[in-house]
Amino acid sequence: MTNLRVHYHGLHKGLTINLLINQRDKIMQETQLSIKGMSCGHCKMTVEKALKVTDCVDEVEVDLEKGQATVKYKNCLDSLDTLKQAVEDAGYQVV
Ligand SMILES: [Cu+2]
Prior knowledge:
alpha+beta; single chain; globular; 4-stranded antiparallel sheet; Alpha-Beta Plaits; binds copper (II) ion
């Protein structure tokens, strides 16, 4: 009986660890970028598209009036510079 309990707890722990490892790349983080140079809906769409530069970017929301982009991304994104570079490659400035 005692052995069974110990075994159960060991198994449970192992499952938890596996779950954490599988979830590692799914944990979401959020950042906001101030973007200069957007003037119309077309700019907004261009920047949104540009920011989805890798699969690690999950959600992009661009507020044209505020000149601000909210980006939700997974831990697999190597650096925030990747986002900055993508916006600049699209012809806008991150300030
Ligand atoms: Cu425009």
